[in-house]
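Data availability (excerpt). The following record was deposited with the supplementary files.
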Amino acid sequence: MRSDMDSIHQFNADGRRTGLRKGALCRWVVAFAAAAATWPASRTLGETIVPATYDVDTYMFVGLNTNAEPGLSVSTDYSAGVVANNNAHFIFTVIKFDDLGGLATKAAGGGDKFLRLSTHNFPGPSTIAVSIAKADIDADDGTGYPSPLFPGNGGLQGTNTDRLRWYMANIKGDDPQYGGYAGGAKHVGEFDIPAAGTYQLDVTTAVDAWISGTRPNFGFGVWSVADAGVQGNTFDFASLENPNGNGPALVVTGESSGPAMGDANNDGVVDRRDLVQLMGHYGAASGATWADGDFDGDGAVTLADVVLLKNHFSSPGPPGTLAAAVPEPNGIAACVLGAIGAIALARSRRRPQ
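Predicted structure:
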């Protein structure tokens, strides 16, 4: 026998499923409201830190995989875009962020996103560039990095010139100002690093494209435009394995200048009116708008949107105002109204006399 919670879990695993029974949904909303009664009356939005999920550097001449080291090395690309045996004597890095499910695009009210990297070994002032990788370095379908030392790519064989050609097509940026190649990966920007420390680069456009699904997410390519490193003393960023815990991360700051996340009616506050507005469209599988409660921009109104509203919930307003604003409730709307009325009552009881 499948319980109501089984239905909830099934829905949660598939954001577009609409088969949740009304009775189960009503009971879930009441539980949701009971939790909402304990939420703070206002929230201060700060930074959200999203750690990378994968990082690796590789010396192309031999195709090394060094994703268990404390540092991510880069060294100057001297190839000048020429594929030749002796031009593969340099190192590049790939950093992936596969866990973006809790983030929203700027268009959907999310914040700015910054790639944060910290130096691990600093041989001197350097300029390090970043691109949007065009292929998955570990892909096992024949499109991955052609080195048998990368276990995730199905043991693809290849020479150093094959690896240099792959790098030029999929990692090195397309901006000629930074030595980029025509047809290369999309150039994002560069870190000018005068001293050891932690640096950030605005990558909002790239990450938002991953979130919305308009661009495949293969991570960032990182390479040196010019650095002070030499063999045995390379320029290194801290990796995920760094014992100091300062590996690659995305820093999400603030909100956009548009409505606050969860503010469906755009009245400047995320409250029970917005919850009612969302629940009126809950289960829509496509074509939903911000005003319908689609806060993550996927065209549907799902449990993910309810969670976004919950995470930005603020003052519910004085008790009794909602009933006047939403007349003649019925069905699920009536359940929601009763549940959020409990929020107001619980909130009023928590106020000091």
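Summary of structural features: The chain has a mean pLDDT of 80.
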